[in-house]
Amino acid sequence: MEERIVSRDYLKELRFPFYIMRCTHNTSNVPKMHSHDFVELVYVIKGEALHCFEGDVYPLKAGDVFIINPNENHTFEFSEGQEIEIVNCLFLPDLIHDACLRELGVDDSMDYFYVLPFLSPDERFHHRLKLSERETSAILQLLEYMMHEWDMKRTGYTTLIRLKLVELFIQLSRIYKDWVSSNRDDSKRRSNHLLVQRINGFLERHYDEKLCVTDLGEMFNISNRQLNRVFKQETGLTVVERVHHIRIEHAKQMLKESEEKVLHVAQKVGYDDPAFFSHLFRRYVGCSPGKFRGHGK
């Protein structure tokens, strides 16, 4: 049975929603199938296991790095005698604000963070990052630094962890880009695919803000017409339809997990007009927000 883990179970510091730990899993302590409302970055230090993710199973080995998004179900499976040692890095997506990334000049070099988590499950894990020996050493060093700062909690530790987390994402982005370059067979197709995944990543992070195709076109240097055409071609949805889908999924989670009024839920996912929100909710879910909440309890 699926277990739901919420951020307050691990991310107890509201001003710094972060947690990092090194742990070992085997047949004696297999976690239940679970999901959570935070991002989980997993680095496999040693060992082997199977990763059960959203109904599929993938092999894991030392040097693998992957990200689990909020609301995705996963656990591990082990054969007798198998175990894995991993680093779990847990955080809320807004731990590092976009304004900070822009100020540091690294917002365009974060493809691993912005793109990989929003690829389809098959592509994400078939093409997961497998680090070389040199890359393994560099990534583990960053994670161990963050673990040390987290354990000691000396003055300024939150700032240092944020900086090291940005460095981690940049390093992983470089590895990801190298992989993309080495596997490029159809440059135009892959270019469009990458563009749509970058936009998807942006929409997932900013779904509660006012979004329009014109602003996205300017941001990603593409005309409105071309943006709509490429996005529809890649996803089967228009940009606006994708925004509605993301917002309604977040609204469903809020309705299940909180007592917030429907009006407030609508506002939190980006709708100022509660009537319009309710209309969309019925169209996408098949019932009103109130009825959905009642059935979910």
TrEMBL record:
Keywords: DNA-binding, Transcription, Transcription regulation. Residues 197-295 form the HTH araC/xylS-type domain. PROSITE patterns: HTH_ARAC_FAMILY_2. This is Helix-turn-helix domain-containing protein. It comes from Paenibacillus mendelii. The lineage of its organism: Bacteria, Bacillati, Bacillota, Bacilli, Bacillales.
